[in-house]
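1st attempt posting a full record on here, be nice pls
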Amino acid sequence: MNSYAGRFASHAVRSAIGVMMIASLGGCAASHVALVGRARPPTSLDQVTIYLQPPAGKYEQIANLSASSSGSFAITAAAKMDKVIERLKIQAAKVGANGILLHGVGDQTSGSVGAGINTEMDSGHSPYGLGFGVSAFFYGKSGDGVAIYVDAN
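the predicted structure (as tokens):
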């Protein structure tokens, strides 16, 4: 391989690594809160209960919540799900909720990264070319629900 082709390939690899690092930092806005009722004094995470169906007693809606696992270092699907639930609970506690009426949690495409390298050489008899490409897709989890305050009575 001539020195120009070697420098080009080395530069392409460094560039691809830089792009992957920047892409992994993207999408750090992992949660959102929209107040629909009156916020209460903050509660602790221990007080926030997850409900899959509306509770039997009287409750008040405080905020619509959404969260994702993006920006976390969770690798497995279960760890990503735990991160979503943790982020929803943090949001709910901040607005004074003691429960979350969970609408659902599902897969979310976080992005993709691709890189390619090629080099060409020309000899006296024929040209030679070599190319290589790789692509990766990143998936996360996202979920949404309603922060609620359930009356103890």
